[in-house]
């Protein structure tokens, strides 16, 4: 086995020691005693009471009664995957972290993606920030990058975190609503904390509705430090960008998916890995030299601010590939414990007051969630680097420390283990000079709450702006107290006067008395998901295409498209009224993958209707087929139709879109691609695939409202 493979597989090999998949012949108790029965409890007579001495029964029930552990107070709902990370080039100039030096080395990782607000059983597609937490099992110990898919945060100081979470979680009297910020207590909090204006803009944008965990960015959010072997430090912010580009769902769609397939993002991640479409993310850093700390119009320690990429470019330093699903959700995804304080030599903290609080909170929360101080011994949390110290005992201790050396310094164990020097690989904190009075205060620059909220707003495309306004209408529209709605309008009047007027219209509040707004006119390209250079629109890998058909469909058209879709890495499902086989116009057969009851447009990325008189005439009679088209259109998805298939589009509510009339001309209008005489289909397939790669066609939204 090559050295490389050993690196990549080391975590897997470690986990292997704990896996249990042998075929045992007999059921036993937890004491290894063979059980004679797992169906019937021990009773005093056939109709008598159950006996206390039935230890088999008691053990089964007791274990079952204790199966649950507390869910995470935030980020309760999540999905994990294993993989590896590889750096592109040695980074010794910036950091001494060993896993960032050797491009041949593959460092094992475990990643957990999550929503923040919902309970463990809540739906995946709610409007929310997504967690993006990565554990690197490096040779120097575990390094955790506990980030989100949004680069800023709601608050500037960790002291406020409990208030934020209480306000956004279901209200305390009735536990309503689940997994939603659209309620009075949250917007009351928002209106009283101008520092969250910037974050709210992001949360109401399409970023909060990712199409897939594989198609969203990740950010370390807080400012950290890189420190090189010479002890030189630089401020850094961490970034992930998905190789599939950044793509979102639309709001109406997310709500429907929450009912039709609440596991949408979890399923997507799992299936992509099972199919070999391994999610990949590039890792990047923005760096600021210490001498430049005060050269920005924002405070670089403020977690409500981005470092605009035009000013501080991202250096892309490596790539992560997720290539293995967990074996057991509870053992791995549920029990994995992240902590921003898990760092390795070469990576250090800044004085960002949010980060400083986080450094405390995560270890503390694991104590209650995982039941004591030994959670680092749970297989998924174990580092690959050896552990040796003087910590002893506590709940669920696995390690059997031999001998008498449980203290330092000692002579009974030759004084070992002993502290290491920096040269020997010890973590030595960065010797930052700190000098100040003990005060409860923030730096003055932290008070600029609105400039970057305006920067974000300026950077949006028209469709993105419209989505944000509509999100305000939903979120604030749900607030019962008119005073809170008004306070929100007045707060956002500080960002942009026109935005505030729009919010007021939909949310049932008065327009601001005096139109206000931040004077910032600047834009920053990569803040926009649509314009960002990190959004790729050249691939349809792992996209799902629905093919609507009935008996009499054109086999040649379906097969020709299916072949190129699958060849390009997409997945195609044939959908019809019933499952079973369909007969084509020329007597061939095709299997139906899903019926209308199971399949719905919202879980597909695109729809195609092949020709065939009889098939299309049947589909015209199917309300579900017409609805499929209308809904896909409403959600701005690519729609393709060939030959008589175009007639189904004419029968739907799609208006004001040019459709092919006759001949071989391919008409592509706002993502609707049609041709009457497809010939061999080759050209149509190409244009349709390009439309799918565009993801969504927002130009439809302007005028056309389709009921669906
Ligand atoms: Fe946090 C979990 C990300 C601020 C306290 N946080 C948690 C997770 C992620 C983040 C991704 C889930 C990890 C997993 O999958 O298990 N949190 C962030 C980011 C923040 C942030 C990017 C802002 C920069 N968090 C934050 C603050 C505090 C916490 C200010 C408290 C002072 N976060 C926690 C926690 C959690 C947590 C209570 C709950 C479960 C857990 O830690 O393991 O400690």
From TrEMBL:
Q: Which Gene3D superfamilies match?
A: 1.20.1370.20, 3.40.50.880, Catalase core domain
Report residue spans for region: Disordered.
Answer: 508-535
Q: Which residue spans traverse the membrane? A: none
User: What is an example of a Pfam family matching this protein?
Assistant: Catalase_C
Listed under GO cellular component are: cytosol
- The record's EC number reads 1.11.1.6
Provide the catalytic activity annotation.
2 H2O2 = O2 + 2 H2O
Coiled coil ranges (UniProt) are: none
Q: Name one GO molecular function term.
A: heme binding
Q: Name one GO biological process term.
A: response to oxidative stress
Q: Which PANTHER family does the record match to this protein?
A: CATALASE (PTHR42821), CATALASE-B (PTHR42821:SF1)
Family membership, please give it: Belongs to the catalase family.
What is this protein identified as?
Answer: Catalase
Q: Which organism is it from?
A: Methanolobus chelungpuianus
């Amino acid at each position: 086995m090559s050295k490389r493979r050993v690196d990549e597989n080391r975590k897997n090999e470690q986990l292997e020691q704990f896996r249990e998949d042998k075929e045992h012949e007999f059921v036993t108790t937890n004491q290894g005693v063979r059980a004679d029965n797992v169906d019937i409890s021990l009773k005093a007579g056939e109709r008598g009471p159950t006996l206390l001495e039935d230890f088999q029964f008691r053990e089964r029930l007791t274990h079952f009664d204790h199966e649950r552990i507390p869910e995470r107070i935030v980020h309760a709902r999540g999905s994990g995957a294993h993989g590896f990370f590889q750096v592109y080039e040695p980074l010794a100039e910036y950091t001494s972290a060993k896993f960032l030096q050797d491009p041949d080395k593959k460092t094992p990782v475990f990643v957990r993606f999550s929503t923040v607000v919902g309970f463990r059983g809540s739906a995946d597609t709610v409007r929310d920030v997504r967690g993006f937490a990565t554990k690197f099992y490096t040779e120097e110990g575990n390094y955790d990058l506990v980030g989100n898919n949004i680069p800023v945060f709601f608050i500037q100081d960790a002291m406020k975190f409990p208030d934020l979470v209480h306000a956004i979680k279901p209200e305390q009297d009735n536990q309503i609503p689940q997994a939603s910020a659209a309620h009075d207590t949250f917007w009351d909090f928002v209106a009283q904390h101008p520092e969250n204006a910037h974050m709210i803009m992001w949360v109401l944008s399409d970023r909060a509705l990712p199409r897939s965990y594989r198609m969203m960015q990740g950010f370390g959010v807080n400012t950290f430090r890189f420190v090189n072997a010479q002890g030189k430090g630089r401020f850094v912010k961490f970034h992930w960008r998905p190789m599939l580009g950044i793509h979102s769902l639309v709001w109406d769609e997310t709500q429907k998916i929450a009912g039709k397939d609440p596991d949408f993002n979890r399923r997507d991640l799992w299936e992509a890995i099972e199919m070999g479409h391994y999610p990949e993310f590039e890792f990047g850093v923005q760096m600021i030299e210490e001498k430049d700390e005060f050269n920005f119009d924002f405070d670089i320690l403020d977690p409500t601010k981005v470092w605009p990429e035009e000013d501080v470019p991202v250096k892309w330093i490596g790539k992560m590939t997720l290539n293995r699903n967990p074996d057991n959700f509870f053992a791995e995804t549920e029990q994995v414990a992240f902590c921003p304080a898990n760092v390795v030599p070469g990576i250090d903290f800044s004085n960002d007051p949010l980060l400083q609080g986080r450094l405390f909170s995560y270890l503390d929360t694991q104590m209650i969630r995982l039941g004591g101080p030994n959670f680092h011994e749970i297989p998924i949390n174990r580092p690959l680097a050896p552990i040796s110290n003087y910590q002893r005992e506590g709940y669920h201790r696995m390690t059997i420390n031999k001998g008498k050396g449980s203290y330092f310094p000692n002579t009974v164990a030759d004084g070992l283990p002993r502290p290491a020097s920096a040269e020997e690989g010890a973590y030595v904190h960065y010797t930052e000079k700190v000098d100040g009075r003990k005060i409860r205060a923030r730096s003055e620059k932290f008070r600029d709450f609105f400039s970057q909220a305006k920067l974000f707003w300026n950077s949006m495309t028209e469709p993105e702006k419209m989505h944000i306004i509509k999100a305000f209408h939903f979120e604030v529209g749900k607030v019962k107290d008119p005073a809170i709605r008004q306070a929100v309008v007045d707060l956002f009047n500080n960002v942009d006067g026109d935005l505030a007027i729009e919010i007021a219209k939909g949310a049932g509040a008065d327009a601001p008395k005096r139109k206000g707004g931040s004077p910032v006119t600047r834009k920053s390209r990569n803040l926009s998901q649509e314009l960002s250079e990190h959004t790729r629109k050249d691939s349809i890998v792992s996209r799902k295409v629905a093919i609507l058909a009935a008996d009499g469909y054109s086999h040649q058209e379906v097969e020709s498209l299916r072949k190129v879709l699958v060849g390009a890495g997409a997945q195609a499902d044939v959908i019809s009224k019933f499952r079973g086989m369909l007969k084509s116009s020329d007597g061939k057969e095709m299997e139906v993958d899903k019926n209308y009851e199971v399949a719905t447009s919202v879980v597909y990325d695109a729809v195609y209707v092949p020709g065939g008189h009889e098939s299309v005439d049947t589909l015209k009679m199917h309300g579900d087929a017409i609805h499929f088209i209308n809904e896909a259109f409403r959600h701005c998805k690519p729609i393709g139709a060939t030959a008589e298939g175009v007639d189904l589009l004419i029968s739907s509510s799609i208006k004001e879109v040019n459709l092919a009339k006759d001949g071989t001309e391919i008409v592509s209008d706002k993502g609707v691609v049609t041709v009457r005489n497809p010939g061999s289909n080759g050209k149509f397939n190409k244009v349709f695939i390009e439309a799918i790669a565009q993801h969504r066609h927002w130009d439809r939204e302007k005028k056309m409202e389709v009921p669906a």
